[in-house]
Specification:
The longest helix is centred in the last third of the chain and has 19 residues, at about 295-315. α1 (about 20-25) runs parallel beside α12 and α5 (about 105-120) packs across α7 (about 160-170). Strands 8-7-6-9-10-11-12 form a seven-stranded parallel β-sheet, sandwiched between helices. It has a five-stranded parallel β-sheet with strand order 2-1-3-4-5. It has two domains: about 5-105 and about 295-330, 3-Layer(aba) Sandwich (Rossmann fold), CATH 3.40.50.720; about 105-285, NAD(P)-binding Rossmann-like Domain (Rossmann fold), CATH 3.40.50.720. About 35% of the residues lie in helices and about 15% in strands. It has about 325 residues and is an alpha/beta fold. Bound molecules: glyoxylic acid. Glyoxylic acid binds near residues 58, 81 and 82. Glyoxylic acid binds near residues 58, 81, 82, 105 and 293.
Amino acid sequence: MIEERARPKILITGRLPDEVLYTLKQRFEVEANLEDRPMDRERVLQAMADKEGFVSLVGDSIDIELLDSAPRLRMIAQMAVGYDNVDLAAATARGIPVSNTPDVLTDATADLTFALILALSRRIVELDGRVRRGEFKFWAPMLFLGRDVTGKTLGIVGFGRIGQAVAQRAKGFRMRVLYSDPHKIDTVHEQELNAGYVDLGRLLHEADFVCVHVSLSEETRHLIGKAELALMKPMAYLINAARGPVVDEKALVEALRSGSIAGAGLDVYENEPSLEQGLVELENVVLLPHVGSATLETRVKMASLAAENLRAGLEGGVPPNLLNPEVLPHRRT
Ligand code: GLV
């Protein structure tokens, strides 16, 4: 008689699209949070005791405490491109592969960046409020004016997949694109994207819109601080749809208050979901609740990709988006 092997137990800390949850339940014994709110940390730690797989979300802190509470864990599939919430070195040291979900959210995040650029420059949120409050009483030449986007200079800080997708969109607005990044891309590609490589100082000095697309690391924490904000033009806007701590939020509130920059569009915050004191009182900001990848189509793709990575990892294969390949020779079985 062939003995049936118990299905691996997995934890999912937030509600996933039904079809992806269904697929996961076919292969695994699933414990899932079915609510659109984070799972309580204590519950996560307890649940980890017998789990072999983990579909993690940006709000999950995968630190040493969590890893030490998970003696059987052999795959972490993060449903996000960013993974600054995961102690990758500690996972690797314990023989646990970790994956993320790149590419599938590039377009949605680049679209959202442009939504913020347009919302700021054309005062979309503010003017919507004015119309609702009955303030649209007549048309006048100098009323409700914003600023042009077409033909302006866009500075892209961090020229990876998402930064380049933003540059692609900027072509439609005939913008001049400057980018800064540790790596210069090849000239042919630069020409295709109509993008010029400059240092961060020059980018901040020349751009009408500065958008941030770097991942969060010790090198990029507070990459945009007081000194950098001071280099921006008084008519320039800052857009951050990457990670909050890349921008020093206190310094940003100060710059917005004093008018040393024109405005900011934020999708992420330094101490998410808390906001820096004074931010909500400002009129020259557009604030979103970390929704860069939040379209139904994209979230289905992200969840499916996380599921594919999880499955590969738990079934002895190589997850397609493995972040720590050095783990493979000594991974937990
Ligand atoms: C979302 O913030 C992500 O990193 O995918």
